[in-house]
Amino acid sequence: MKLVPRIVLWLYALGVGAASVFVLLQYAGLELLGRNFVVYDDGAAVAAVFLLLSIFFLFYRSTPTEREPQTIMHKLENGDLKISYDTLEQLTLKAAAGVRGVNDLRARVHLNEGGTMRIAVKYSIEAGLEIPKTTAELQGTVKQFVEQATGIKVEQVTVYVMELTQAPTVAKKRVE
């Protein structure tokens, strides 16, 4: 939520909360502002509900909920570069998509303490392909592509083969 609507909501909740407290104090029998208003049970119950809602809005929406996305910081000659994990995962998927026989890709990026990263890739492989050979090709392709695109060293590419899939069959069209 942006700043101005948040301030308006906060002021509204503060005003409604103050009015609710006033009504509840009148219900308790305190004389405020030189007058004693009669407040019935229904009015006190409504004031209590509005007070609880005001407290909720004062505390729940007063703090910003938007967080900066997780990023990996890379030191460059002229300053720092921050690359989001989402971007790194997209780069990983782009590189892995070029490997023959690899389908249903999912990727995760983890930052190591030394400034390097680890990448985990889950995928399905076409039946009939050599899993070790395809995995090695996938690891090498992802590592090289991500390092070249970002300049950040990839320490490890872990690969999880989730299932076998059938190779797509190409049906020949009959010409009559």
TrEMBL record:
Family matches, as InterPro entries: Asp23
A Pfam family the protein falls into: Asp23
Positions of transmembrane segments: 7-28, 43-60
Protein name: Alkaline shock response membrane anchor protein AmaP
Keyword Transmembrane among UniProt keywords: yes
Alphabetically ordered keywords of this record: Membrane, Transmembrane, Transmembrane helix
Superkingdom per UniProt: Bacteria
UniProt KW Transmembrane keyword: yes
Family: Belongs to the asp23 family.
